[in-house]
Design a protein that fits this description.
Elements: H1 2-13, H2 17-22, H3 25-44
Length: 45
């Protein structure tokens, strides 16, 4: 799961500035965090 998190955040770092103009950063970080936590729960339960 750590590798997935690392890959996703690296991908986000390379997105264009126009992407961030259209998508609020807080919403994006919340979405990534929640999705990664869901994956983590799926594999640890």
């Amino acid at each position: 799961v750590f590798n997935i998190r690392e890959q996703l955040f690296k991908h986000v770092e390379h997105l264009s500035l126009s992407f961030f103009d259209k998508n609020p950063v807080g919403r994006l970080v919340t979405r990534l965090t929640n999705d990664i936590e869901s994956i983590n729960e799926m594999y640890t339960d």
